[in-house]
Write a structure and sequence with these properties.
Elements (H helix, E strand, L loop, with lengths): L20 E8 L5 E8 L5 E6 L3 E7 L1 E6 L5 E6 L3 H9 L11 E6 L4 E5 L2 E6 L7 E5 L8 H10 L9 E7 L4 E13 L5 E9 L3 E9 L4 E2 L1
Antiparallel strand pairs: 1-2, 2-3, 3-4, 5-6, 6-7, 7-8, 9-10, 10-11, 11-12, 12-13, 13-14, 14-15
């Protein structure tokens, strides 16, 4: 006769849910050599995991999400969220939205296992076909509060309802090369990654919008 000597199991209730984790948003590189997946708790900050095909974990990135492999399988790009508890507390303290922490961009070079990070990035996109060029757009830069500067800006603004452009970066992580453009309100990257079209808007004494096309093969703006 066998008798169980184990402790009585604790009944499940809502208090244990926060510690549970789940896997989501997994992906595999086009050459099949790399995979990523997120491990997230139901409450709190999760991690992005990157593995090689030989079953070896190559990187764990805190608060990494929305990951995408480059079509060349040379790197993976992802968003890095700010600490959830920090943002929550700042909102409870009624900190203005423009002063809250923002997302960052992480770019992980798979062969060299090098991570590059860029702060205050609101969006990024990768090519769909063979290219290592990508594009990301910055948030508005943080500035020390200056009432006189804010007043001068409002007086010089031609149309206050017009969108405000920010810096756009065309970036190649493998070449470690980048091109930056100011006052960009919208952008598109071609599927092959060879063309980037973007709109700039200058909003001072006049409202002046311009459309540009940048050729990443020739590395020039038209």
């Amino acid at each position: 006769i066998f008798t169980s000597m184990g402790q009585e199991k604790k009944p499940l209730d809502f208090s244990v849910y926060d510690g549970w984790k789940y896997i989501e948003d997994e992906g595999i590189s086009d050459n099949g050599d790399w995979v990523f997946y997120e491990v997230n708790p139901y409450e709190g900050d999760g991690n992005l995991h990157v593995w090689s095909a030989d079953n070896e974990e190559k990187g764990v990135f805190a608060r990494g999400t929305r990951a995408r492999f480059a079509p060349t399988s040379e790197f993976v790009a992802f968003t890095i969220k700010p600490f959830r508890d920090t943002v929550r507390q700042m909102k409870l303290d009624k900190v203005p939205d423009k002063e809250l922490p923002t997302d960052s961009l992480g770019v992980y070079l798979l062969e060299s296992q090098k991570l590059v990070k860029f702060e205050r990035v609101k969006s990024f996109t990768l090519a769909k076909e063979e290219s290592n060029w990508m594009v990301y757009q910055m948030e508005k830069p943080l500035r020390e509060k200056d009432d006189n500067a804010d007043k001068d800006k409002k007086e010089k603004t031609f149309d206050r309802s017009a969108p405000e452009g920010t810096e756009l970066v065309i970036y190649n992580p493998l070449k470690d090369k980048e091109y930056r453009f100011e006052d960009v309100t919208d952008y598109t990257l071609s599927e092959g990654g060879n063309l980037v079209s973007f709109v700039t808007l200058q909003n001072d004494s006049l409202l002046n919008s311009s459309l540009y096309v940048s050729d990443t093969d020739k590395e020039e703006k038209q």
